[in-house]
Amino acid sequence: MTLGGACSGAQSQLPALAREAPRVHPNVSQGCQGGCATCSDYNGCLSCKPKLFFVLERIGMKQIGVCLSSCPSGYYGTRYPDINKCTKCKADCDTCFNKNFCTKCKSGFYLHLGKCLDNCPEGLEANNHTMECVSIVHCEASEWSPWSPCTKKGKTCGFKRGTETRVREIIQHPSAKGNLCPPTSEARKCTVQRKKCPKGERGRKGRERKRKKPSKEESKDAIPDNKGLEPSRETPEQRENKQQQKKRKVQDKQQKSVSVSTVH
Fold first, then answer.
1. How far apart are CA 65 and CA 54, in angstroms?
2. β pairing state of 36-40 and 28-29
3. At 250, is the secondary structure helix, strand, or coil?
4. Residues 226, 230: Cα–Cα separation, whole Å
5. Secondary structure (DSSP) of 163-224
6. Pick from 186, 173, 166: which is nearest to 140 by CA?
7. Residues whose CB falls within 8 Å of the CB of residue 49, separated by 6 or more in sequence, listed in order
8. Which string of DSSP letters, residue by residue, matches 48-88?
9. Residue among 78, 16, 20 at smallest CA distance from 53
10. Taking the model in full, what pTM does it have?
11. Consecutive 10-residue runs of the chain (264 residues): their mean pLDDT?
């Protein structure tokens, strides 16, 4: 084989070797920052350093690769042999553990067993504070207390028929769909043997009457004494009015006497 033939044979094999060699994008850099193993000026991170998660962030119309130590809210992380990747949760899920288990739902949905529901299943109710489906809680009350002594208007004496009461406490308040609480007090009529009240336990009305009645000395003091007062002086007008009244009375008597004489 001639030298020219050897050279021509080597040249014929170069295209095949070029096709087998790995192609590297001219914009890919090996010296990236921010946890990137490889990166691009246009697409950001293309691969991440060990233990970091790769996630695509949308900026306008394009997506940029970012390497993070943990996945952001709304994503869950999955580790593969060649890459650790962050995947977006379902549309109705705000945060999730994996593709099929949500830990917090978006507004308008209620969390139940890792799923986001429009309405809670039967036997459960929606908690609008935690946005979860929770068990219905019914009201619970304690046992009744013993009946109180028979009383009437706050007294335990001076009557035959009165009222006795008993009470109980609320142990557990109900939830929105739970059974309402029963009454916490109860009263009933009672009959006892009449007994006189001690002096210190007189009725309220009797005490009020005793307070209202004035003593003899107070009643004497209340009567005005006009003996020592001087008679009030009359004005000239008052005197003239009295004189006119006297004249009218005299004239009336005279008219009556004249009318009687004419009749006879």
1. 7
2. antiparallel
3. helix
4. 8
5. EEEEE--EEE---TTSPPPPPSEEEEEEE----PPPGGG--HHHHHHHHHSPPHHHHHHHS-
6. 173
7. 35, 36, 37, 67
8. E-TTPEEEEEEETTEEEEEEESSPPTTEEEEE-SS-EEEEE
9. 78
10. 0.48
11. 42 36 46 83 88 88 89 91 90 92 94 94 91 94 95 90 95 92 95 84 55 57 50 70 80 66 48
Amino acid at 175: S
Dig out the tokens for 79 from the structure: 């580790």
Residue 25: partners with Cβ closer than 8 Å, 6 or more residues away:
40
Instruction: Write the single-letter amino acid at 170.
Output: I
- Nearest CA among 184, 192, 180 for reference residue 165: 184
> What pairing do the DSSP bridges indicate for beta strands 110-112 and 115-117?
antiparallel
172: its two tokens: 């557990």
What pLDDT does residue 21 have? 33
- Using alpha carbons, list the distances in angstroms from residue 58 to 39, 63, 257: 16, 4, 130
What is the total residue count of the chain?
264
* Cα 190–chain centre separation: 42
Bridge-based pairing of strands 53-59 and 28-29 is unpaired
pLDDT of residue 20: 38
